[in-house]
Amino acid sequence: MASGCVLPNPFRILAITEERPSVHPFVLVIVYAEADEAEKSFEKMKFNCIQRAHQNTLETLPMIYLTTIISAFKYPIFAASACGLWTVARLFYTWTYGSGHPAKRSLSSRIGFFILISLIGVSSYTTVTGSLALLS
């Protein structure tokens, strides 16, 4: 199920690639449009939002992968379900944030964060109980 997390990445990359020429028409890759430009142009604001959603997903993926794998040692159904739900929440997050209205991402962001915290808790429990079992 963890491999399913990367499936949305090509779509985010395509969305960024599609929006980039309207924001930065030259070859030099600039990650974000300047704040004053984004305030004046909805297209530049939308580009920044899509780019940030993509970047935020890449920042979160290592934690999702690690906690899913550790949790799966003891609770494979929970781990797969949580990872799948996180992926759906992240798709919704990208769609709402990428609309150019950052406030719309609030619900999907909270759902994804709750799932991440759940995975952290279960993976921590799995690690501690596994370690204690080895010591006894």
UniProtKB/TrEMBL annotation:
Source organism: Tetrapyrgos nigripes
Localisation: Membrane
Any Pfam family the entry gives: MAPEG
Primary localization class, coarse: membrane
Key words, A-Z: Membrane, Transmembrane, Transmembrane helix
One Gene Ontology CC term in the entry: endoplasmic reticulum
GO molecular function, one term: glutathione peroxidase activity
Protein name (record): Glutathione transferase
Keyword Cell cycle: no
High-level lineage: Eukaryota, Fungi, Dikarya, Basidiomycota, Agaricomycotina
Tree of life domain: Eukaryota
Transmembrane domains' residue ranges: 72-93, 113-135
Membrane topology designation: Multi-pass membrane protein
Database matches in Gene3D superfamilies: Membrane associated eicosanoid/glutathione metabolism-like domain
